[in-house]
Amino acid sequence: MAALSGLGGVGKTALALGWLHSLRPELPDGQLYADLRGQAPGGPADPAHVLGHFLRGLGVAPQALPAEIAERAALFRSLTAERRIVVLLDDAATAAQVRPLLPGGPAVTLVTSRRWLSGLTLEGCYQMHLEPLNLDAAVELLADTLSDDRVATQPDDARKLAGLCAGLPLAVRLVGARLAARPNRRITTMVRALTEEHARLDALSVDEDHSLRGALDLSYQELPDDAARLYRWLGLHPGTEFGKSVATAVLAELSDADLPDATDLLDELLDRNLLSDTGEERYRFHDLVRLHAAAKAQEEESASKRKSLLRRIAAHYLATATRAEQLIDPQHRTMERTYLEGVREEPVVEDLGNDAETALDWLERERDNLMTLIRIARPAGLPWLAWQLTDAMWPLFLRRKHYDHWHDAHAEGLAMAQELGDRVAQCRMLTSGGMGELGRGCPQDALAMFDSAAAIFAEDGDALGRARTLNYRGLAHQRLGRLDAAAELFARAAEELPEHGDHRAGGLARLNAADVELALAQLTPAASDAAAAHATLSAAGDTYNAARAITLLGQVRLRQGAPAEAEELLSEALTVMRAIAAHYEEARALEYLGQAAEDQGQTQRAEDRYRESLDLYTAVKRPGPAAKVRDRLESLGGEPPTEQEHGAGPAVTERDAPSG
User: Fold this and answer.
1) Share of residues in the chain with pLDDT > 90 (%)
2) Closest CA to 349 of 376, 381, 326
3) Which of 438, 474, 482 is nearest to 454 (CA)?
4) What share of the chain is helix, strand, coil (3-state, %, to 5)?
5) For residues 123 and 102, is the Cβ–Cβ distance under 8 A?
6) pTM to 2 decimal places
7) DSSP class of residue 510?
8) Please, is 514 exposed, middle or buried when counting C-beta atoms within 10 Å of its C-beta (0-12, 13-18, 19+)?
9) Angle 603-619/583-599 helices, nearest 10 degrees?
10) Alpha helices in 353-502 (DSSP H)
């Protein structure tokens, strides 16, 4: 393990990446990267969340992630005890943030930080402080940036300019980019301008390093007006990376009929090394450049203008997340959104087409930005944003199982809904947040949240809302092993929900009731409720849950000794699940199809089905069901794959949630 410290802009991350890439052949078991966001506006990354990300990458199912950071750290060390991997922990704030993220075994770990992390010495960390480039190296970097003969023909001026940059690679790149854009300008002109800028900063007693601040100020001064405006406006973006549509959103603040083209202005900033392109029309500032852009916004824009711009950024994310929610989960009741109060135009929405997978990918890609917006909603004076953005992220939480973020987002969303006195929003945060607590293995916490929502609904006379909580509370009791209590609640929900107009939720209650009845070996009522649920959910257009009802009915038929009928039902469910990429439910249908084949004496067919099921269970990281299927294969005398052969699996999404 090594820790690389140094000034901002000295090239720590570039050096780290260059060295670690050279080690990849010697460390073939994988690479893990985390941006610890030591300088991020939203605060440093939570090491518990980073561990969750690492563990998921190593094959741990979301439902199996320990709740406590100490347990996560222990599991991480165990999983990496025999793996030759590379770990890069970039931009650490403190040694305490890093310590839980250290792997076990023959790994190479590199940490970058502005600070000397002496606290890691006890862990055997090799400390290296990265100094600025010496003068010759800085001149070489300047020549590389210019790609012409000016450094060779003006060597004295080149050395003076490199000296004014104090050996900081970022500063050299900035002044080099300005010169590269003007092939006829002599280096001495830049030397004179940067010298004058240093003198100005001295007079202002600016604490920030003059070499970098001066280079940034000069680059900013020479920007065209439209590009300079976009630069400082983008400095208000609260995250570390953003897409082109964010630039379009802030430019909508302009009232001119002929707005400047966002792509052209972004290209201008890229050409001047003020932005970096991360691919697919996504951009990021170096953290010091972002701070400079934010400072320019503070200096040149009023407080009301800055708030208006941040609101446009927030409205863009909220509107696009809401569009994604509608594409992915049209059954989810979208609540009223607050976008741009007092502004007539609609917010800028990124084009997601009409594709649910594209929408889900967008939510995943923007997850960190969305979570940062939720965290800053209160101090930014946009409290409504916290619960509305949390609500819009429901399909992401449901399908990708980011339980840490699910929990944190709903906690903040609930707090803001309570602060606003919005009881409808409070109930939404309690019920959808409670579903997250169920998923992460905290049914008692979930039940408390569902009970709180039921009390609010009852006080407000919302009979439909209270009836919906019967279903949720039943799920919590089911997870707590109180099957009789769960059955009673599901029966009440199945009766009351249709009376209040929600037939689909009533169908889900029947499906949940059938699941409990099957667990209690009450096969006749289970078959009846599963069939009724299928009819109701099919009529409501809920293809996914209707197919789940067919799977459950197939299980009942297996238990009743009718494998041929079960096979027909399970094949129907399998067709649906494959069409909508519901991989977990697909694996379950295949498992029971294997059992149906086995019951009919079709050993080879049973083995084939079990193998398909095992592949999918492994891919969606469900070790419990995978072990069960592996045991069935062994009992048939087959050669089941080893744990190592199924350690990772293809990258797929899992659609698996309680029927709420």
Assistant:
1) 80
2) 326
3) 474
4) 65, 5, 30
5) yes
6) 0.86
7) H
8) buried
9) 160
10) 356-365, 367-376, 383-392, 394-400, 403-420, 423-439, 443-459, 463-479, 483-499
